[in-house]
Amino acid sequence: MSLDRFYPIFDGPDWLKRMLPLGVKLVQLRMKDLPEDGLWQFIAQAQALCRAYGAVLVVNDHWRLAIDAECDWVHLGQEDLDTADLPAIRRAGLKLGISTHDHAELDRALSISPDYVALGPVYPTILKKMKWKRQGLDRVTEWKRLVGDMPLVAIGGMSVERAEGALEAGADIVSAVTDITLNDDPEGRVRQWIEVTR
Prior knowledge:
The chain is of the alpha/beta class and 198 residues long. The protein is 44% helix and 18% strand. It has an eight-stranded parallel β-barrel, surrounded by six helices. Helix 8 (160-169) runs parallel beside helix 10.
């Protein structure tokens, strides 16, 4: 199945309750600094919501809990790859997305045969401190050439206004976080995103 081109990232099921009814079909749940027992409950709730709305849920980092909650996708950063049990993830039938920021990380990701590769930050991001400077659209084009048919996710500083440029540069999917969550009208912003990516 092909993934939707709009890929918002939220930090809890409350966001999903608001955004899935608007037509979001691909969403990542990224929750940091929560105890595992609370996390499982949130992941299971998010999975139930996504199933109800016919959306794909991607769980960031917590692959064991994603397996327990019978999720379909997990997203791992490079540091997560150091400790994740990739054979267990594959045995559970989970599809896998991997973050990349430079050629060495891309080579590592491709050696694992993921189901998508993310490149970031395409533009400067306020979400988290990173040692990588903005990658730019030329890097998006280069990455797409290197990954071939594998879906490429552009992330980092993405906005409705920048989405079209990223897609034209070669991204298959555009991911957004603060452009939605810090917007005065998150629902209105999501509607704009859906309009420019479909």
